[in-house]
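Re: [ENG-882] Designed sequences occasionally contain unexpected residues at chain ends

Forwarding the minimal case from QA. Structure tokens:
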């Protein structure tokens, strides 16, 4: 296997964290970026999301057992995201990258935004179009001929960690943003206390489709490398059901997962919605317009120096 090179700092010194399928997760000792090596190609990634990604028989390691079952908590969290975004700018032209079944698009439209989506899975894009009647472009963002400078805001909810080349992906994001446009990102936090405690057994490292594993610092560096200004970050929950969390325990112990699911069913709370903390961060960034942009830093957000 060829020696990896860090995309962010060019470093050649790494520590292997764990094997993943036919690859391995490594950590750059220069800047701290975690990533898979070798990275899959864009064509391999496009094939990966075809078929049963959103209705997977191996959802602990690949996709979702039934994405539709998470519709209520995803919509709830979408409304919370839109409220947060509304503190920054009025509803405008919005591109949601990684639109999945279009649940966020639908909530954005209801809130007065003019949204479009990008979705790499043809099957999921078809569902999103049927649900919303909105434009949903099929393919990886970096391969689509979208109009440059078109959107006032771009959202990437748990998407950037799936990119096959993060700088190419972020350049495509920057291209479709208007000068002065806003970028909102959620991503699992590889520097969280839970991730540090779990080490190589952190659940974020289990998903085969995760190619990068960011901290606030490494994501800031990636954004600034392509000319986007990192403004702030804050912890952000993942909305799911009790049953979803119980199934995820199968990564650590199938017996614990079965027991937790049985107890949740006995208590009648399997479909109850929960905001699961300690996983994601929400990052705010902008495309500079050269006219003295003002930084947006809501109470509770944090800068990375």
């Amino acid at each position: 296997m060829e020696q990896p090179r860090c995309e962010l700092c060019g470093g050649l010194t790494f520590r292997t964290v764990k094997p993943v399928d036919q690859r391995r997760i490594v950590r750059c000792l220069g800047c701290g970026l975690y990533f898979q090596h070798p990275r899959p190609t864009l064509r391999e990634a496009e094939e990966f999301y075809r078929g049963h990604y959103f209705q997977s028989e191996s959802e602990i390691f690949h996709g979702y057992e039934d994405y539709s079952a998470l519709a209520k908590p995803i919509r709830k969290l979408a409304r919370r995201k839109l409220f947060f975004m509304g503190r920054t700018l009025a509803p405008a032209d919005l591109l949601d990258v990684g639109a999945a079944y279009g649940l966020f698009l639908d909530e954005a439209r209801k809130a007065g935004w003019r949204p479009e989506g990008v979705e790499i899975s043809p099957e999921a894009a078809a569902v999103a179009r049927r649900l919303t009647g909105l434009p949903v472009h099929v393919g990886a963002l970096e391969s689509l001929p979208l109009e440059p400078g078109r959107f006032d805001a771009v959202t990437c909810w748990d998407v950037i960690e799936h990119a096959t080349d993060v700088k190419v992906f972020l350049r495509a994001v920057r291209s479709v943003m208007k000068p002065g446009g806003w970028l909102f990102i959620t991503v699992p936090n590889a520097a969280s206390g839970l991730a540090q405690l779990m080490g190589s057994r952190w659940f974020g490292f289990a998903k085969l489709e995760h190619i990068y594993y960011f901290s606030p610092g490494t994501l800031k560096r990636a954004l600034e490398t392509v000319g986007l200004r990192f403004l702030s970050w804050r912890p952000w929950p993942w909305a799911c059901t009790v049953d979803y969390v119980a199934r995820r325990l199968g990564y650590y112990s199938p017996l614990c997962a079965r027991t937790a699911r049985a107890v949740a069913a006995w208590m009648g709370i399997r479909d109850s919605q929960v905001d699961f903390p300690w996983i994601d961060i929400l990052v705010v960034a902008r495309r500079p317009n050269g006219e003295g942009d003002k930084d947006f830093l809501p109470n509770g957000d944090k800068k990375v120096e």
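QA comment: On inspection the terminal residues look reasonable. The longest strand covers residues 273-286. Proposing we downgrade this to a documentation issue.
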